[in-house]
Amino acid sequence: MNDQSRRDFVKKSVIAGLSTTLPASQLLTSAAGDMFVHHVYFYLKNKGNEADKAKLLEGLNKLAKVPTIKFVHIGSPATTDRSVIEKGYAVSWLCFFNNLEDEEVYQKHPIHLKFVEDYSALWEKVIVYDSVGPRRS
Description:
This is Stress-response A/B barrel domain-containing protein. Residues 36-131 form the Stress-response A/B barrel domain. It is a single chain. The protein has 137 residues and is of the alpha+beta class. The chain has one domain (36-132): Alpha-Beta Plaits. It contains four helices and four strands. It has helices at 3-21, 50-63, 100-108, 110-119, and strands at residues 34-44, 71-75, 91-97, 123-134. α2 (50-63) packs antiparallel against α4 (110-119). The protein is globular and about 35 Å long.
């Protein structure tokens, strides 16, 4: 599966799941119908260190309070086992915004800046997948 079709698949899967659990008034669309998805994978410097992972989770829970975030999910690698699955990361951070502008507010928000300042020493690598597109029902 190429990167673009993988992104489309992930985005559509998440939207489909959200549409069954969120009221219509909370669906993630702007006036133009586009939404912004921000997915971050954190790779810890001290792989397998549960104290470092707990500290990162503490920081992400603080980060979730940025007001422009409409939905957030914090996760760890699943136990699934297929050749296409990346499981080397420690924590994933998935959040949805109404639009690109709201995500840009998030990037500059004091809570986000403080998160990077306080917790960036924990990770050796971060991979980010950002996508935009209309909500599909």
